[in-house]
User: Fold this.
Amino acid sequence: MDLREFQDRIRDIDHTTGWDRLSGLQLIARLTEEMGELAQSVNRVYMDRDREAHMENIGVELADCLWVITKLANKYGVDLDPQAVRLVENASKWSEDTSAHLENGLRNLRDEIGSVLGEENDRLPAG
Assistant:
């Protein structure tokens, strides 16, 4: 199934079930809820021992987010297919500067996490 077909199917389902009557603000509230559930699943991958169950749930939550984003697109008459094509075309033009910028951000994040873990490890009793 391609993006256009997915969007059409969601539109049909929403018309049949009445979801198409929700306002844009109600859909944004729903998207915020789904994003929170996604964030919770990502967080649990790093915090819990049962990582695989949470990894599987990330896919579920991403699909839920896509579902609500598609509802928003339908609400406002946005065809996601050409928007996705535009996004991919723009991303393929990103320069090496952008890549270097992203790598620098990841390096800073790693250093920040390392310093926090180092501080926490100093406070923990020896083993």
